[in-house]
Design a protein that fits this description.
heterodimer; A: alpha+beta; Phosphoribosyl-aminoimidazole Synthetase, Chain A, domain 2; 60s Ribosomal Protein L30, Chain: A; seven-stranded mixed beta sheet; 28 strands; 24% strand; globular; B: alpha/beta; two-stranded antiparallel ribbon
Chain lengths: 721, 226
């Protein structure tokens, strides 16, 4: 664990002397990329972060959105990639634990979790299967035990994650606005460490995550204990109700070093602490180990001395430990002692503010080499190709994953996993829609348009449930930022997201940047992940039963945009082509039209058309309702395209609407008024998924056969290889 | 008239159960921390689902030694209706109030899905408003939900009409597809599926009326008209 030479010079000039060994450890933890965002911070400012619903207070670890009636929703996203790649069970589990404590630290109850998971090719690679299986189990065991439902997420497989894993976790909280922890402190307040004991696990974890993964450093991986976390949640919420907490922070990356310096800096105070007072799980831990341990399930609390007794009572009830480890001082200094001996004495502003970097960015050469077009013969048997794509690991139903997660506990889950967006009911009668999306295949071909596409896709899903997007969190995951080509891809993605967020007035209320996602084989593809929250004021759009003879309307244009598509990559093994591009104006018009139609109650179902293209989107509806369809390809609003491209293009801003015939006229005139491009492309009928062109059959696939394969193929693959 | 919900460290369906009892059925409901005593004049006791003590050693076994279990046993023997759901069922089994054991599911993993129950005994305080063989759509969410008992015990269960609910089809490998059983007197019921998650139409994608009858039966048996 160390600082870069120029960082050491910077530190010495700031404090006017050589740092002690402990000081060096503390600063190295806080100045790691993971904790300091030193490569990204100057650029992240471009994102719009304010809006009428956004509540901002200093020291908050989560984004907060006002959802009316004196209630707030909190949201945060984190990843645990490096640990999960080495020890998937513990890495994924502690990833869930960490982000949940961020929600808790604002004083809100965590009410839901979503996961974005990415692994190598599980069809060929048994190690990728092992990582996948154990990461899912880790998430399940942790979230289930806490009684926080895992309500959704996404899973994707790509060769670029071979021997690696991306485990992203979004947590959502809900609470009363007036119970938010305000984060205030004054001289004489006490500093308390509550929860799990401090051990030698996870030492240097944040630094481990700030390098490329070249070693299996298991001691840098934390050990999960969901039972303690559950007790902490209940104890903290009880303490919150009794107003016993003035300021609070979760201990995450960088352990005590980061928590102390960051909270002191944000509250403009100093903190003096004695490591002898920290309850530890093993004897003879030295000061440096205690300061940088990333043992889980720990919270830092600042409060008035008079509140201690009541806080102790609550901790006794739940049998969790709570130690007074220090006090708040007026001088903005972070002082670390062991008994009487001083080990560190640093200005908090120095520790909490790493020297920021303005890294060079160069457009990567690989982008010039990507083939923009490749002529394929239209395959003869498109029915078989559709079946193969529906059963592929990326497209197959993920019931094997979410069936292991308790997604019902808390009795809020109105729309359960497996649909476009998950929907939760809130105590004020409103509904919250949530969707997490990523698309590294498209982001690789075009980091800007790919990132925008993820954002739009998440919005489309939220809109399909009838909700208005009100906020987003992003997770930007890239390789080594010291490589100007990789840094360029990061900036491009960020700029794209910023433009979209500004145009649609969707504030970014939180996020995370994770660099150094590399394996000995090289960097991962640019992997931004976007989670969008949507709000519905009244009764949500009910999922209605689709019946025979219901019509299918397609909104939006299908273009020659198959770059990064399942069809190109999975069927033809071709990495190239045109990445789908979102036209902001069309996107907005289509989004608003769909929302209005849902609110009017004129349509039965709205379904997003994305990965796998129109063919898969239609098939998904057929397989879910067990009714066939008859679609006429010549009716699809599109560029001039061959059948295979019409079927599998992944153009954005497209929606499938299902409606009763009697509503068609009013819907048509409504959409014409809104100048939205659309057409009736077919209807539900029979027991086959049928695509025709000029009355000639292009695809004919039994719904039953497709459904079985789609439902079971992932489990088959994971359990039996 | 009072219903008590027992809260153990790690219970996590306690608040859901409370919501249903108070908001839907207007029952005077109180939480009881596992170290406290239960009042004698209570009408019914519910052991909610969750992961008491993090399922350490074995699901339900540590909670079965909590101080409050003494009171639960006393109330059980005096005929007060006692309901254990999911982890609550596991605790009832581990405390000896119900026979058998709950083992890891056949799939060896946690299972969260909707299934159907068949009512096999409609004479208990929790099923008296249901029809015999009525179907109840309901979710399960457990890792150790496979009911097991030796042949002799199973025979006794059948003979005494103690099998209250069966799964309509095999979901997890339970003996005789058992999803819920009662004691010989019928006042102590343990069930793995979660009725509290199926009561409201908003979150029940199929039909919420049958599972609501479980709670209406309880109201009926403690003399409250709903």
């Amino acid at each position: 664990m160390s600082l870069e030479p120029q960082e050491l010079i910077h530190l010495e000039s700031k404090i006017g002397r050589k740092p002690t060994k402990t000081e060096l450890q503390i600063v190295a933890a806080e100045w790691s990329e993971h904790c300091s965002y030193k490569s990204s911070r100057i650029h992240l400012k471009m994102l719009p972060m304010t809006g009428p619903r956004v509540i901002f207070e200093k020291g908050f670890d989560s984004g907060i959105l006002d959802v009316g009636d004196d209630y707030v929703v909190t949201i945060h996203i984190e990843s645990h990639n490096h640990p999960s790649a080495v020890e998937p069970y513990g890495g994924a589990a502690t990833g869930v634990g960490g982000v949940i404590r961020d929600i808790l630290s604002t004083g809100t109850r965590p009410i839901a979790v979503l996961d974005g998971l990415r692994f190598g090719n599980i069809e060929k690679d048994s190690h990728a299967r092992w990582l996948f299986k154990n990461a899912v189990m880790g998430i399940a065991d942790y979230g289930n035990c806490l009684g926080i439902p895992t309500i959704g997420g996404e899973v994707e497989f790509d060769d670029c994650y071979t021997n690696y894993a991306l485990v992203d976790v979004v947590a959502i909280g809900f609470g009363k606005k007036d119970r938010l922890i305000k984060n205030r402190a004054k001289k004489g307040d006490i500093v308390i460490l509550l929860g799990g004991s401090t051990g030698r696990d996870g030492i240097g974890g944040s630094q481990f995550a700030s390098n490329s993964l070249e070693s299996d450093d298991r001691s840098a991986v934390q050990i999960p204990d969901p039972f303690i976390e559950k007790l902490i949640i209940e104890a903290i919420l009880e303490a919150r109700n009794q107003k016993l907490i003035k300021a609070m922070k979760d201990l995450g990356g960088g352990g005590l070093s980061c928590a102390i310096s960051e909270i002191a800096d944000s509250l403009s105070v100093g903190i003096e602490l004695d490591v002898n007072k920290v309850h530890s799980r093993e004897p003879n831990m030295n000061t440096d180990e205690i300061m940088t341990s990333e043992s889980q399930e720990r919270m830092l609390i600042i409060t008035d001395k008079t509140k201690l007794e009541k806080l102790q009572e609550i901790c006794n009830k739940f049998q969790i430990k709570c130690s007074v480890i220090g006090k708040v001082t007026s001088k903005k200094i972070m002082k670390v002692k062991k008994g009487k001996k001083s080990f560190a004495n640093l200005p908090v502003s120095v520790v909490a503010h790493a020297p920021l970097l303005d890294r060079p960015a160069i457009k990567p050469k690989y982008l010039e080499l990507i083939q923009k077009e490749k002529k394929f013969k239209t395959p003869k048997n498109l029915s078989n190709i559709l079946l193969k794509i529906l059963s592929s690991p990326n497209m197959a139903n993920k019931n094997w994953v979410y069936g292991q997660y308790d997604h019902e506990v808390g009795i809020r889950t109105v729309v359960k996993p497996g649909h476009d967006a998950s929907v939760l009911r809130l105590d004020n009668g409103k509904f919250l829609a949530v969707k997490l999306d990523g698309n590294p295949k498209q982001c690789y071909l075009n980091p800007r348009e790919g990132a925008i596409g993820c954002f739009e896709e998440a919005c489309r899903n939220v809109v399909c449930s009838g909700a208005n997007p009100i906020g987003m969190v992003d997770h930007l995951q890239f390789g080594n930022p010291e490589n100007p080509e990789i840094f360029w891809t990061f900036l491009e993605s960020l700029k794209g997201l910023t433009d979209f967020a500004k145009y649609f007035k969707i504030p970014c209320v939180g996020g995370k940047v994770s660099f150094y996602n590399e394996t000995p084989k090289g960097p991962i593809k640019p992997s931004p992940l976007i989670c969008v929250l949507g709000l519905m004021d009244k009764k949500h759009h009910q999922l209605q039963t689709i019946s025979n003879d219901d019509l299918i309307v397609l909104i939006g244009t299908t273009k020659n945009e198959l770059g990064g598509s399942e069809y190109f990559e999975y069927t033809h093994n071709f990495v190239g082509g045109h990445c789908p591009v979102v036209d902001f104006k069309t996107s907005k018009a289509n989004m608003n039209a769909v929302l209005e139609l849902i609110k009017k109650g004129w349509i039965k179902v709205a379904h997003d058309c994305s990965k796998g293209g129109l063919a898969c989107a239609v098939s998904e509806l057929c397989m879910q309702t067990r009714i066939g369809c008859n679609i006429s390809l010549e009716k699809i609003p599109s560029d001039k395209l061959f059948e295979d491209r019409l079927l599998f293009s992944e153009s954005h801003s497209r929606y499938l609407l299902v409606l009763e015939r009697k509503n068609l006229k009013q819907i048509q005139s409504f959409l014409e008024r809104k100048t939205v491009l659309f057409n009736v492309i077919g209807k539900f009928v029979g027991d086959h998924i049928l695509f025709q062109k000029d009355s000639k059959t292009v695809i004919k696939l039994s719904v039953d056969k497709a459904q079985k394969s789609w439902m079971n193929s992932l489990e088959e693959l994971v359990l039996h290889g | 008239m009072k219903v008590g919900i027992v809260v153990f460290p790690g219970s996590n369906c306690d608040r859901d159960m409370y919501h249903v009892l108070t908001e839907i059925f207007n029952l005077d409901t109180k939480f009881f921390w596992h170290e406290k005593n239960l009042p004698k004049e209570i009408d019914a006791v519910i052991l909610p689902g969750g992961f008491s003590y993090g399922d350490r050693l074995r699901a339900g076994i540590i909670a079965a030694h909590s101080p409050i279990i003494k009171d639960v046993k006393k109330l059980a023997s005096s005929g007060i209706p006692i309901l254990g759901v999911c982890n609550g069922f596991q605790i009832l089994v581990e405390s000896g109030l119900l026979p058998g054991a709950l083992l890891k599911n056949n799939s060896l993993s946690f299972m969260c899905q909707w299934t159907n129950l068949i009512v096999e005994n409609n004479k208990t305080p929790f099923t008296n408003k249901l029809k015999l063989h009525q179907k109840i759509p309901i979710p399960i969410a457990n890792g150790e939900g496979r009911y097991y008992a030796d042949d002799l015990t199973l025979k006794k269960l059948e003979k005494n009409n103690q099998i209250v609910f069966r799964y309509s089809e095999m979901v997890n490998g339970s003996s005789l597809r058992i999803a819920g059983i009662c004691n010989v007197n019928g006042n102590v019921l343990g069930m793995m599926p979660h009725p509290e998650r199926a009561i409201e139409s908003e979150i029940n994608p199929i039909d919420n009326k049958p599972s609501a009858l479980i709670f209406e039966s309880l109201l009926n048996s403690i003399g409250i008209q709903n």
